[in-house]
Every structure is written in structure tokens, then in C-alpha cells.
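Researcher: First entry.
Model:
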Amino acid sequence: MKLSLVRVAFALSSLTAASPTLAAQGNSATLPHTVPVMMERLTTAEIRDAIHTGKTIVLIPSASTEATGPAIALGKHLVRAQYIAEHIAQELGNALVAPVMPFAPTTDESRFPGTVNLSADAFSRVNEDVAESMVRTGFKYIIFMGDHDQNQPLLRTLASRLDEKHRADGVRVFFSSDSYAKTNKEIDEYLRANGYPPSRHGGVSDTSLTWAANPDYVHPDRIVVGAPVPPAGTPLSLGAIGIEGDPRRASPELGKMFLGWKIKNGTAEIRNLVGTSK
């Protein structure tokens, strides 16, 4: 297990350092003319000074590297997690963002080439080590976030355990779910109310969100109808091409609206978590 965790950590650092998605991306995930909040873009002295001047919140976003049919790139969750976390940190004004965790537990996506499946134990342990590093760095509020379904219960459990461990020392650890779970429910309600066809993995929301976060990660000419959408609450069933439902009405405009909802909900929840903990 130790060797596998070392390999995961190495892969994470390599992706962060080398990937234009997570390092110096020049598309819509970049926030021009603003104070940098992504830690991989800052020096250690800049991070130290930021904490000393009041940026005591750190967001730890988790994503997934997974297949989503012929039209969406494997890094959809990475660009979305960064986009959302970066914008939330800018809205908060007193937060920085740790490098995005690119790997997670997956389910039916694992059948398709390129998907990286991380065990639940490895995912939790790597996130725990990242959080402990942030505690040693001097942050007072550690906020886990996840832009992938399988991340949610694991991060919630981990945050609760670490909060119990560190709160006596004045450090709080929380899981922020509203940018994902709450907003996804709002998105689903909007799509139903406005007559969009049923879709889930690789569907209207999935495609639109990715398209708005970074258009390079969506190939509009390859958008096709996938397998029938399973009943609500059932596991993924991705058929032959890795899509559930009909994504053909997806658009970057729709995705931009949905991203705005995620940023608004996430910012409000984190402010509440931090405010009520004082």
C-alpha cells in the first residue's frame, strides 16, 4: 500500500506541474487580472505571506480522471473542480486552493480506456495527507470539496474525523457539498422543467458544465445519444459508448449558468461553515 500511495502522490504532483489544465491554463478556467489563489502558481513565501495577512482557508478540491463517451475528455472533472474552487476562493477573498486531486474511485467508467480507478482507502489516505500538510502550513480552515459522485461520502467521513482530531488546536476541517449535491439537484430540476431529454453521465449537464469550464475538453461534432438513463439512485450503466441519455441540447451557455450556481452555493456554504465555527 505504501508503494501505491507513493505512486499516486507522484502522479498527482506530475499532473499539477505538467498539465496545462492545472498549471498555466489559458482558457476559461483562468481568472484574468485577479490575485492568484491556486497554490501551485505561488511560491512558498507568497503562501506564507498570504496566510499571515488573513488567507487562512484552504480549499482541497477532488476530481476524477474518467471516460465520458466520445465527446468529453477524460479531464472533465479536473477542469470543473479547478474552475469552481478558484472562483469560490476569489469570492471568499480569504482562501487559497490546493492542487486538484485528479484520481478517485470509479464504477462503470472503469470499463473504458483512460479511466483511473483509485481504491476508496487510497483516495481517503492521500486526501488525509494533503489535509495534514495544509494544517502544518498554517491554515485554520481546511475545506474538502469534490466534483465526482464517489468522492462525496468519503470526503464527508474524512472531514468529520480530521475535524475531531484538530479542533482542540484551533483548526477546523469541513466538507463542502453544496456546489455538488445541492446544485446538481437544482440543475436536474431546471432541465426537467424546461423539457430537456433525460440524461445523466455524459448528458446535458455533464457536457454543458465541461464545455463552459474549458471548451477544449468538449468535441461538439462528436456529441451523440447514449444508453437509456437508469432509474434515479441506481448505479451508472453506460452502455457501449459511455453515455447515459441524450446530450444534444448541451451548450456552453447552459454550462456557464450552472457553474454560476455551483460557485454561489459553494461560497455561501463555506462562509456559513467558517462563520458558525468561530
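Researcher: Second entry.
Model:
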Amino acid sequence: MRYGFLGPETTFTHQALLQALAEIPEEFAAADPVLVPFASVATAATDLQAGDIDALMAPIENSVEGGVSGTLDVLAATDSITIVAEQTVRIGFVLAAREATPLDQLTTVASHPHAQAQVQDWLRSTVPGAHVAAASSTAAAARDLAFLTEDEARGRAAVCSPLAAQHFGLEVLAEGIEDHEGAITRFVLVTREGRIPARTGADKTTLVLQLPHNRSGALLEALEVLSSNGVNMSRIESRPLGDFLGRYSFSIDIEGHLEDRRVAAALRSLHRLCPVVHYLGSYPRVDGRSVEVREDYADEAYDEAREWIERLSAMTTPAPHTPAEPVRSPGARTSANPLTSGS
């Protein structure tokens, strides 16, 4: 098995993959996994579809910044991949440089845009004069800095994980620089085989919906479908479709598994309502928390209701076969019945 991740080594995605390899369902496990770093989720997804890798770990949301747009867009645009597991990593950042440098002498600080957003208050207050530059990942910012010459590295620093700073031999200038202590990023493990992990009772399902265009209340109707089946939604995010202004798809996480009757019933109704329902998978929740289901939304309630309708349907008298009436033009006169006419 070859697993792709947003690289290089020591990214938070790399950490999530290492954690997940010890926890993923047995049918997806591999004896000697090969870990392959990628510069972007889109590139890794292309290789996944081409068969060059077997699975992909990608960040999908952060407790501070919300959804990771690059991953959400890739998942929404790809029909042949399935989420089979999730993982979470607690996020902490350090400011690191090639050598000890006074903070007021820093001119450039590089990191991934999501990491920048999680330390922006600290950067503004501590190194207000430094230019903030984008990198493909936090580990890439540390690696690129480590490979610069001494003159090139002067005045430059990276926001990265403590592990990345250690791995690339950087000097830590400041620790715990995140604006929100205890921030968590959630990652998903994606395969192309279309197999769905078995229901555990503590599951999550991910969908992408496109709503009917220019129909008022369409989003409300979709949400009412979930509510009427007792399905709780834990995340919803809109992403532009890219064809016209004001056209969006909705990425949604719901509690439950495809094998749950209430989830299957909701998906059937969404399929009737929405022009596009992209099912991305049902998989175990990383926190293992079971979903509390009301009695009238339990599988047994759906099964009893179906059996009741089947019994009633069996009592229905078949309609007699009658020849079709001829089609009459508007205003045509009906011939008199010779048995009842007075002629």
C-alpha cells in the first residue's frame, strides 16, 4: 500500500497519517506501507485516481479556521474516491530560524496559509514589520529555510510544528505562538476502491449536495429532509461551483452510517430533491462517540413501517383492465346512447 500525504515529512498531515495507520480498519491495513509526500492535495488526488498511490490523507477542517478549501474542492470534484477513516491532530506552532535571531530583526516569516491564520494575532503583535509569505505546508516552510545559504536565511523564519523545527535542525525562537491553545485539525483518509467500512454505531457520513437552481427554500428543504429522519448534521460548508456567481455546492457531515435506516431514508429523499448528491463515504468517528437515536428513528421503526405498508399493499384489489378511452378533441359532441335516447 502506498499512502500519499501533504508533505514533506513532519507536516501535521504526516502525523495524522502515522496515527491513522495504527487505527484504520483491518481491511484497509497494509503490512509495509510506503508513505509518499505531495506538494498539494490536488496533485495527490490525481495520482490516487491514476493508481500511483492507494490512499491519501488530507486535512479537511480546523477548529479555528473551518474547512480546508483545497481538500473540499478536490473531494467535491472527484466521483471515484471514498473516505474510509478520519483522524485528528492537536495543533501547536513554533517560530524557527536557521540561527538565534532577535525577533525585531526578522523580515520574512513563511508558513502554510492555514497556519498563518492560526498565529496571525501573535505575528501582528510580536513581529509587525515582518512580511508573511505563503508555503505549501508548515514543514515545507521549515525545510526550505533549512536549505537556504546563510546569507539567504538571514532575517527569515518559519512557522511550523516543533517536530519540523527539530527535524530540519532549526533554532526555535518562540514556542506556543498559536492564537488559540488546543486547536485541532481533522484529516480524512481517502481511497479509490469504493469500499465502505462496516457500521460501528459511532459513524459519520460525508456528502456534497448541489441544490436546485433558483428555487427558493431549496437549502431549507434539504435540511428538513435530515431533520425529518432524525439525522444530525455536524458540519456544513458552501463552496462555489465556479460556473456562475451565486452557484454553490454544500459539503456536509452527518451523524450515522449508510446502513442506518434513517440515513438511507434521508439519502433517498435528497436524491429526489437535489440534482447532484455526491456520496463520499461512511466511516468510523475518530472520537468513538455513539449516536443517540430516538426510538421512532431506530432501524426497527423503519422496518416495522415498511412491513406495515407491504401488508396494506397486499390487500389492494387489482385494478380491472379497461380499454383506453378514445381521445376527444375539445368541444366534441358525445354520441347519444341508443339504449337511453328517445329516438
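Model: Note on the second entry: The chain has three domains: 1-91+183-195, 94-175, 196-311.
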